[in-house]
Every structure is written in C-alpha cells, then in structure tokens.
Amino acid sequence: YVEAQSLSSTLADDPRARDGQWSAPFALPLYAIHAALLPAGKVLWFGPPDPGFKLNTTQAVLWDPISGELERVDPPRNIYCAGQASLASGELLVAGGTLGRDEDNQPLGLNKVYTFDPFAEEWIEQPEMEHGRWYPTNVQLPDGRQAIMSGSNELGASEEFYNETIELFTPGAGLQAQGTLTTLLDAGGAPAERGTAGQPPTGGLYPHMLAMPSGKTLVAGPYQADTWYLHTPGAGNLLQWSQAPNLNNRRRYANGVIMPPPPGETSPSTKALLLGGYGPTPGNPSTDQKSLRTTEYLDDAYPSLGWRSETEMQVGRSNQNTVLLPDGSMVQVGGGVGLDLYGTVPQHHNVELWDPVTKQWRLGAAQQEERAYHSTAVLLPDGRVVSAGDDGNPGADANPLHTAEVYSPAYLFKRARPTISSAPQK
C-alpha cells in the first residue's frame, strides 16, 4: 500500500505521465517532407536539400532511432512530392514526384516508380507510369497490389492537368524484383478516367485512400463530393466502384485514418476518420481559409448513416500528422492555420491527444519547432514518435529548417517498462 501510494504521488507530480515529453531537436541534412518506418527499424526520410526547391534534386537519409546514426541513400531521381506505401515484402513503393518546374515555378509531375529495399538499403527502378504524377496517393489493396491515383501530370500543376487515370502496381516475386504497371480500364477497354461519364468523380491532390475491412478502399475527399469506394479489380482490370456518402465539410490538407477499435475490442475498426483541414463550414463561408477543429467519421459497416461528427479538437489544424499509438489512443503532431500553409499559432506546438475511453481531445507537451506544411511524423518500434520536416518554419538560428524531434508518450512514464528475460531461439 505504501509503495502504491508513493507511485501514485510520483505520477501525479510528473507531467510526463500525463502529457508526454519531447526531446531536443537534432539536425538533418534535408527537409524531411516524406517519412517511412522500415521493417528493420530505421526511418527513411527524403526531400529537397534546399529552401525554395531551387535545386531539382532529392536527398534521402536512413535514421537509426537506437544509435542516432544517419546514412545517406539518395534516390536516382527527384521523387519528393510523390506517393508512397509499403509492400507486403517490406519494400517501400514510391510513385511520381517532381519532374521539374515551368516558367511560373509550378511543379511538373514525374512518371518514375521506385521501390526501396530496406534490407539491402537500395533503390530499384520499376516500370514507368504512362504519365507523370505530382501529389498522388498510393494504397495497398487487399490482394497485395497497390493502386496509384491522382496527381498532376508532366504538363502542369493546375486542375486541367490532373492525371485522372488509376494505375495498379503488381509486385514481382522476391526483393528487388521487377513489378508490372497496369492502367484500369472502362467497359469499352479504354483507360478509365475519373470525372467522365460512368466513372468516379474527379477530386483534389493527395486524396485520402483507406483500405477498409469490407475489402473496399474508401476514397475520402478532400472535397465533399469526391468520396467513393474503389473495388479491388479483377482479372480484367476494369475500374469498378460504388458511391459513398458525401463529406459534411470540404477538408483540404486534412488527416485521414482508420480509427483504433474501442478498448478491449479485437475486431478491426470499421470507422474512417477525417480530422481538421480547412474549408468553409456549412452556412459559414467566412471560415473558408481557416483550419477546422471538427472531425467526422464514416462507419464502413453502416455507410447509409453517412458521415457523422466526432469529437472536436482543441485547436483547428491542417497539415498536421495523426499517429495511431499502441494503447489505442491517437496523437496529432503539429499543424497550421489553413490557407497560409506554413502559418501556425503557439498551440500548434502542443501535441493533441485522443483518449479512447472519454473520446475527448486534449493538449499535451509542446515541441520546439513549427511543423505544418511538408511535415511528417511516424511511430517508432519502441513506442515513441518522431516528428520532422516543414520547410517554412523559422526554427532555431543555427539550423532553421533541417531538424527532427522525438516525442515520448505518457505511457512511457506511467510505470516501470517491461523487460524481456528470455525468448525462443529462431
């Protein structure tokens, strides 16, 4: 009893056991606008090395969260602003990127596709896409293939140059194998284009694509009417789709996740959640350029109920990063004010924490840097979260932009950490 009372008193006096704790920033050689946790435990960051994207090149580094070592593994081409998703092999598939810029400094889409082998730590060039994609989305389908959708093509960045086809990447057998790319077709055998008769609606760049337990992939915004289901294609590679309810709000630069299941629930969650972003709230056009505090979810088990409101955040956020934590909670890292993509307020430095029991958001510990547009955050194998990127934040005088910070959630301070005393041999 005395020991328990002492522990309780200690936790009550330790803000880390409630809000978590941030480490001091450490230097990076690039703007980490892309991030991926690899199976070997390292984090792959890639992005431009220069402010203003004046150099048409991408650098990449591997970071070991245990030793802190950084290793350069630059890709063959300029792949920042690509889409990315992990394959079942553990390789990272990266599609598209930045071919260059036009006379108005607007980006042009790259048609290259690469995989990164996390074990040999090498880039492998894959077959090219038919057209470029700048700001596309990749998603892993239930059968192991990946759908690559959206992005602007090699001719320009405005809506008239959006790449409206959907391509499928089928991985080869084994690591570093060559895969194949196929364009989904309409009923007449021609490439199916979104926004044309009988096809899914067109939409914005970097759409949210969530593979749901039903086997369908939910495409959710960013615009209200571009929400629909992509069905896993069959042998004929026909584009098959069905309608989904429209969003209640336009949510540009929002976050989209599959919500963690409730505490004690072992079945996969069927709820897709969109958080923040910016856009006018219904009946209030004055909010058009401001970040939203609201969130909304669609239950894939009951889609006829439409998108429903979930608990509001404490601070309106766009360009934030929502990370699912192993205890069933969520943490939002960084974010900004809305149309001003790099603009922030002081509270954006504080993480925002979701309690799965109370279903409420609250503010937690604050990091030092601003992390809005072009920022990233990923969960590490030891339960911490690393935050990096944002090529527009003022930062510290000595190293204003190239930094990362590590967040240790509250569960790392609530009691003594478990240790492994024995384990079976391989």
If you had to describe this structure to a student in words, what would you say it looks like?
This protein is mainly beta. The chain is 4% helix and 31% strand. It has two helices and 31 strands. It has helices at residues 2-13, 16-19; strands spanning 21-22, 26-27, 34-37, 43-47, 59-63, 70-72, 83-86, 92-95, 98-101, 107-109, 113-117, 122-126, 137-140, 146-149, 166-170, 180-183, 208-211, 217-220, 227-230, 241-243, 255-258, 271-275, 295-299, 308-310, 321-324, 330-333, 350-355, 360-366, 375-379, 385-389, 403-408. The strands form eight sheets. Strands 1, 2, 29, 30 and 31 form a five-stranded antiparallel β-sheet that branches. A four-stranded antiparallel β-sheet has the order 3-4-5-6, with no helix packed on it. The longest helix has 12 residues, at 2-13. It is globular, with a radius of gyration of 22 Å. Mean pLDDT is 92; it is low at 1-10.
